[in-house]
Amino acid sequence: MSSSLNNVVLIGMPGSGKSTLGVLLAKAAALAFVDTDLLIQSHSGQTLQSIVDGEGYEALRRIEEQVLCNLDVTGHVIATGGSAVYSDRAMRHLKQNSIIVFLDISLTTVRQRIGDFSLRGISKRPEQTLEDLFTERHGLYTRFADVVVNGEHKNQNQMCEEILKAATTNANRNLGFLGPSTRP
Ligand SMILES: Nc1ncnc2c1ncn2[C@@H]1O[C@H](COP(=O)(O)OP(=O)(O)O)[C@@H](O)[C@H]1O
Ligand SMILES: O=C(O)C1=C[C@@H](OP(=O)(O)O)[C@@H](O)[C@H](O)C1
Ligand SMILES: [Mg+2]
């Protein structure tokens, strides 16, 4: 059979809803769920914040790349961390059998949702502002996305429906996504 695009990978800024929407989406689509931030924490035995504080943001990116490249699942919704897109290798690996969905929210909404970002283990250069980070990443999220879902002014249920619809439409152009009902 041709490549089965049977995972949904969520990418986007912190606060875009990857972790919370990922669970809802998995329930709605009868898929399993994995949050790669939790894999990083269990892999390293510490919180993301303590990795950034103790070893620096580049160490977090290296661990994240390793965890993403070792991920070998099918039939999952995969919530990534906001910095996943800094690894070309990891994104190419995920793309092999996944639809990549970018949850696109504004900088204002990022600020509202994440509050004090210095406590959130964000992987960024020390001098980098949130605005700089937003601009730098927006291009990366767009580049790797198969589908972009605008997340402004929508509640979680609306987002979930929209992601599912967009991912299914996109995947139906390929084969084998979300089970037999979408196969020709
Ligand atoms: N569509 C939405 N509308 C309002 N709040 C949301 C929405 N999606 C997520 N949130 C909230 O935003 C916060 C960050 O969500 P989270 O899933 O942790 O984002 P991420 O994993 O992308 O960093 C949580 O408090 C969550 O409840
Ligand atoms: O954007 C980032 O640099 C990060 C986002 C976090 O995940 P969420 O995007 O789920 O908040 C987590 O991976 C880590 O603290 C780094
Ligand atoms: Mg998250």
TrEMBL record:
The keyword Transcription does not apply. It is found in: Cytoplasm. Keywords: Amino-acid biosynthesis, Aromatic amino acid biosynthesis, ATP-binding, Cytoplasm, Kinase, Magnesium, Metal-binding, Nucleotide-binding, Transferase. Its cofactor is Mg(2+). InterPro entries: Shikimate/glucono_kinase, Shikimate_kinase/TSH1. Pathway: Metabolic intermediate biosynthesis; chorismate biosynthesis; chorismate from D-erythrose 4-phosphate and phosphoenolpyruvate: step 5/7. It catalyses: shikimate + ATP = 3-phosphoshikimate + ADP + H(+). The keyword Transferase applies. Substrate binds at residues 37, 61, 82, 137. Binds 1 Mg(2+) ion per subunit. Its EC number is 2.7.1.71. ATP binds at residues 15-20, 125. Pfam families: SKI. GO terms for molecular function: kinase activity. Catalyzes the specific phosphorylation of the 3-hydroxyl group of shikimic acid using ATP as a cosubstrate. Belongs to the shikimate kinase family. Monomer. This is Shikimate kinase. The gene is aroK.
